[in-house]
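re: ur question from yesterday

yeah so i grabbed the chain u mentioned. its 210 aa long if i counted rite. heres the sequnce exactly as i have it in my notes:
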Amino acid sequence: GAPIDKLDLTGFGITFVAYTQGLASFPNIAAQAFSVVFFLMIITLGIDTQIGVTEAVITFAKETPLLARAPTWAVTVLTCVSFWALSLPCTTDAGYFWVTLLWDYGNFMSMFIVAGFGLLGSCYFAGLGWHNHASELLRGKRENWFLLFFWRVVNPILCFALFGISAVSISPYPTSLANGVLPLGGQVLSGFMNFAPAVLTVLAILIPPL
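ran it thru and got these structure tokens back, copy pasting raw so excuse formatting
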């Protein structure tokens, strides 16, 4: 087999390159059996993830004035077809680059930025009264002080620390992707994906509801 130092052991390379090469080194029957089990696991993980993501998008769409009166089945079909269309570039010869771009440069930072704003908003803008009121509605008693401490202090620190780590891990931002150079358009797109959610979050806070 290939030497360990020649394998791509970062990101999706672990799953779709290194592990599959390891399976290929098994005896014939074992390689086929473990390959089927492995890729069934990947498929079920993907389906499980998509169910959660799709449900969140459908719920959000149904709460917007534009689609509030639309049939649920129509919103579901529209969401699934949109996701399918957006995934098509990932099935092309450049699919690995698109997936790496979306995951490494379009997911980490935006995820921690939005989560950090959400934590700060619920912890410090909404305040302890909001937490206690929500807890009394859901559980019939006030929130535990230990949980509030983690929610107000530990979680924001961890979130922004992870944001810093993710920012450093993709530095320089970004100049290369896999074995090629990420073009300027890709850099602009990755920056948009990373920071657009943060901008939308700030606008949602600043713009009063109708």
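noticed a couple things. The chain is about 75% helix and 0% strand. also The longest helix spans residues 28-62.
anyway ttyl
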